[in-house]
Please model this.
Amino acid sequence: MIIGTIVNASGLPAAMLMAHSVKVQMPDVRVVVCLVEEKINTDQHHPDVDQIITAKVLSRCIGFQDYDRYIIKFNPLQYAAAMKGQLLKYLLEAYPEEQHIVYLDPEMYVMGPLTELEQMLLHYDVVLTPHHLEPSKPWDCSREIGTLQDGTFHGGLVAIRNTWEGNNFANWWLTIIAGEFEGQPKGIFTDQPYLNFAPAFFNTGILRHPGYNLAFWNLHESHRWLCRESGEYRLMGGVPIRCVNFSNFLGLLDYCLKTYVPDNTEYASLWNDYKGWLSSNGY
Model:
């Protein structure tokens, strides 16, 4: 398996922490970081990262035409989303011996081996994770309405198998995000709405394990209730946590913790632990 992520220089400590968490849980997995800035600080040492490459160089490697004209269409918050297809295509071409290619957001923290994800990649060429695994109450469907706009599946964890079908998916996602047509998805997460089509277009598996993609948008779900057993964080019923997305975009993680799960002290404790790890990592 090889894991790639995209980040700007200010978010590099989070990406390094993500890479470290990967190496702790899966030492043999390689990690590639795509930096959106055009220059890399060669004085910095990143022991848990196998390769750092700039977005411009990456685009040149895969023969992506007119990179500057393409990327100027996006604001800084959209930049990473705009490069995900290119990164997947690059990883497929640069590491042809790797059968499993995974994109993870830099704010992800891996807390266990991605066993279920790897098992699904034995049967599917694309694996996606939904934003939600439980419907909201009938009188509170605001989350579903927001998800309809942003996409059913989370673009922060996308896995593909190095097959003809997996390559087709990477090429399709790259092309459609870079499309010149009118009416592209609005907002920040321009990559995600297109993933709604993946189960129809490709051999796609939907990973419904609640221990993946634990984040502010789903922490209210009953199966995501956090506990601690023998010093380890787990979900209700002893379900293992595989990866947590610690995105605090617009302060939404802080808000959702206080508003929806104020009694879940373990979730707040885990969030504080992560901020401590990030601080020690130079953030």
